[in-house]
Amino acid sequence: MSTRQQVLVLYLATSALDSEVVGWSSYDGTGRTSPTTGDGDEPPYKSGVHALEDGWRLFQAAQLLPPHPGHEYDVSFLKHEFFFEKLVEAGAGSGGGPV
Amino acid sequence: MTTTWEQSTGSTLLSSVAMAHFVAHGSLRLDAVVPAEMNAEGMEVLRGGLPDVPYGTPVADAYPEGSFVRRLLELPFVAGALRSLVGPGPSVDHHAVHIREPREGQAQPLHGDAIIDVRTDAFDVQLMYYPQDVTLDMGGTLSVPGSHLRRTNESDTGRYQNLRGQSRLVCPAGTVVFLHHGLWHGGRRNDSDRARYMFKIRFNPSVRQRRLWDTSDLGDPRVAEELATTFPWYEPATGRLEVYNRVLLWRSLTGDDSYDLDHWVTRVSNRPQEEAV
C-alpha cells in the first residue's frame, strides 16, 4: 500500500484561516489530474476552514512579516498563503475533494 | 480585461474615463476593431511568421507603409489608443507571434513580461491582436485585472493558478487588447482542436506620458469611479495600497499633484511644518 500527496494552496483575504479564498492552486501527486494555470474561475472552497472541514490538513501558513522600511506602500505577492495536503492511496480516487 | 471603456467625445483618442480604466485594470480591450478581411489576411501573415525587428526600432521603420502590421496600427481606434497610452512616435521593443497548439496540454505560468519594472512615471504597453474568434477552450490569454502595479519578477508568480476575478479571454475575431507592461498574464492550455493565434507588439514611449489622451472629460465623476475599482482577488488591506499607487500614477499622468481618492495619499503625506501659535 502506498500513498501520494495532493496539495492545495489557498490564498485568503486576510491572515485568518476562516477568511475568504481569493486565489487557489492544486497539485496532484497521484498523476490522475493535471490542474494548471487558468483552469477555473470558481474557488474550490469558500474559506480555509471550509477546506479543513473537507479533510484537508494544513501544513504551512505564511508568516506575518512587517513591510521593509521605505517600502510600506509597495504591492507584490499575495500575503496570506496556506498549504494543505491530503494523503491518498496511489490507486484510489482523489480523496473526495477538489484537486 | 473588460470592455467597459468608451469614447465620450467622438475622438479616436481615449477619453479620461478610458485612461482611468486602464490605470485601474492595467488593460484596455477593443472588441472586433479589425475588419473581417484584414483578419483573414492577418491569419495568413501570422502563419507565415514575421521577421524580427531590432529593439527600439521606430514604428515607421519596423513596418513599411502598406504592410499588414502598419495598416493594423493605422486603424483609427488602435492608433488612437496607442497614441493616448504612449504618445506619438513610440518605438517597437519587440514583437512575436504566439501560437497555442491544439491540445498541447500545457499552460504558461502566470508571469509579467521582461523583468521586474518598477517605473512609476512611465510604462510600456503591449498590443495583443487576435485575428480569429477565441472560445474558452482555445487557450485565450489569462490575465489578472489590477495586477500591473505589483512588484514581482517575471514568472515568480507561477504558483498562482487561479485568482478570483481573473480574465480568461474569450473574444470575437479582430479584437485588440493593450496591456500595461506589468500585468500578470499567460497563455492558457488549448483544449480545442484548433490552433490559437495572437500577435504581440511591445511599444516603448519616446515622450513623457502626460495628458496624451483627450482630456476634455477629466472632471467626469466616472474617472474617480474607474480609479477606485477593486478586484475580487485583492486582499482588502492590500487593495487599499493598490488605490494609493494608482493615485500616484494618475498624478503622474495628469500632472495634478493634488489628486486623491478618499484622502488615501493626502492623509499619509500630511506633515505640517508650521509652528502652533
Automatic annotation (TrEMBL), chain A:
Domain of life: Bacteria
Chain intervals with Polar residues compositional bias: 27-37
Region feature Disordered, mapped onto this chain: 25-44
Name the record gives this protein: FoxHVI
